[in-house]
Amino acid sequence: MITVLDVDRATATAVETAAAALAGRRIAVLTGAGVSTDSGIPDYRGKGSRTRTPITMQQFVAHESARRRYWVGSHLGWRAFAASEPNAGHRALVDLEDDGIATGVVTQNVDGLHLRAGSRRVVELHGTMRRAVCLHCGQVFDRRDLAVRVEADNPWITVPENVPLGPDGDVLPETSDGFVVPDCSVCGGTLKPDVVFFGEFVPVERFQEAEQLVRASGALLVAGSSLAVNSGMRLVERARRRRLPIVIVNRGQTRGDVSATVKIDAGTSDVLPLLVDALRTAR
Length: 283
Description:
three-stranded antiparallel beta sheet
């Protein structure tokens, strides 16, 4: 029996039902921005989310002004991103992997918090803010090293308090005038954070790795995703076709609700630790 702490009786009952559906199975986990909201990183579509018009790959490549605006915001956002800490939801998924229940985590997030929490097998579908890559020669740079260069070239730049951080680590700067955009120190080419922009596709090999993780599992747990992005929804569809149990934990509706064996409309930081306890009890 689950102890009701910060969740209501209906949620606790739903967790018990989910645990029964998942018990005895290896579980693939798919996560979205909702897993990181309790770490101070907002989601895209939740209550109170700001309307955003993300930069597209086409804009980034075509316009120097777009690259300058993006890099100012990306640097400020990365600094705030890097200060975020994993929360109870991230740690619960580490426990699932340590217990031999979870086969790994496929995440749509670029914040790196699953790895920092201790998850070992993580497929970062949309890339990571930890690195930047040269679009010309392919050289990869650690963002920590790149930040030193950015701040040396732009000594006026400071990270404001209570920066309005976006889920992709970007912020909307007040101005980008005079900002010196970092370039590749190897070939002088254009750098971009190693993330999938709007207008780009998830690399084929990365999606295949995510598919393999789901294929090697007997159930799918979706945590903190509205499944509005097609890459995540395609994995849910793979699980549905195999008639696997699908448990969705997310505040609000998702595109996958119709396929869910159990849907829990609650926060992941509250629910995932309870689900771990219930699955341990069921073993």
